[in-house]
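Encode chain A's predicted structure.
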Amino acid sequence: MSFITRRRAVDQRPAAQGEHALQPTLRWPHLVALGVGAIVGTGIYTLTGVGAGLAGPGVILSFAIAGLVCMLAALCYAEMATLMPHAGSAYSYSYAGMGELVAWVIGWSLILEYTVVCSAVAVGWSGYAQGFLEARGLVLPPALATGLLTGDPGGLINLPAVLITLAVAGVLLVGVRESANANIALVVLKLSALLAFVVLTLPAFDPARFSPFLPFGFAAHAGADGAPQGVMAAAALIFFAFYGFDAISTAAEEAKNPGRDLTLGIIGSMVACAVIYMAVAAAALGASPWQAFSKSDEPLAFILRSGGHDLAATLIAAAAVIALPTVIMAFMFGQSRVFFAMARDGLLPRGLARVSPRGAPVRVTLFTAILASVIAGAAPLKLIAELANAGTLAAFVATALSMMILRMQRPDLPRPFRTPLWWIVGPLAAAGCLYLFWSLPALTRWLFLGWNLVGLVVYLAWSRRHSVLARG
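Encoded structure for chain A:
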């Protein structure tokens, strides 16, 4: 069988025994919290300002478009996750639907996605942490406050971003259920802070701030400074703010009742977060001129300070400092499970698939933490977020295609959740993701291509010969 086309059977359980087995310890509240914890984070706390700088008040459309594309993809994920409750997410679905080579490309893209998401959130967390410290009279020197690649004079390393990444890795190593329970508590805190923001900004809401609604137009295009502008340029970036539900699918093997728990986790977290995002974005745009808060590293706290709510701004920043690590936790959890699945299938060294007695894959978690901390310590938020989006969009397209292929080739398979109108939802999800991918900056697309060319070399030189399927 050709290494390009060999596929794992849909109903084939991965060879998971002893130190290579994950334990089912999670119920649907853990999975909903994992999804909300992954989705609500740097995107709404930080990228709201960046997106407004690209689209003006039209950023509200950017949120709606990105959310719609993610909802279509979430329906495809819900079907595939309940059909194949295996660790690995889109990597595992591609293995069954399109073969090993495509699965490798998607798995390699997911490694990029989850690692750089951890880095991006760590950088966003650092902005709020530094704002909180500055309000207390503690200012970090530039060499320890910004990364070497940000272009800021004197920047050497973003030390807070490095430290929070390593700290979250430590929590994950304690154990799966323990870290999931901690995640629920932090998610409640985070949502309470966003609700407080909406309530406090409503008295200052001014509809006139939404005019002109589309100062930079709809389609993505280069502005006067060469940087991308427009509603779709913002949507391609803000897309980062919506995904995270795919991290739930990586926990499929650890769900006690996959058919019910995964469906509730994926669909429930997406619906909840779409409502939250639209409310917060509308409140921000109505309470402050977008030209002002778009320049801030902590836009929500900036808007509250501008409205005279200094104490509330400090508390919002404190909530972000405390709760944003839930996003790092969710994506680091997901990355370790994708890495784990690929190692268990022989595409990466199988020694990486060993788990501790507490159910944590120690080696891949540590590897993820070290790599993510290096990126977070050096690179700027916008570049990291865009690169993460590229990997995610590739995974979403692969999941939609796998869902459609298996619907046509194996209509007999029992599906606990069935994507409604799959012949419409699947193509729209794939087309929407491809359009968002093309709306990313050219540099991001080239970096993504370069990453996958490196991955292709690794696969051809080593992985295809060590694959479990290759060994029969």
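The CA atoms of residues 192 and 319 lie 9 Å apart.
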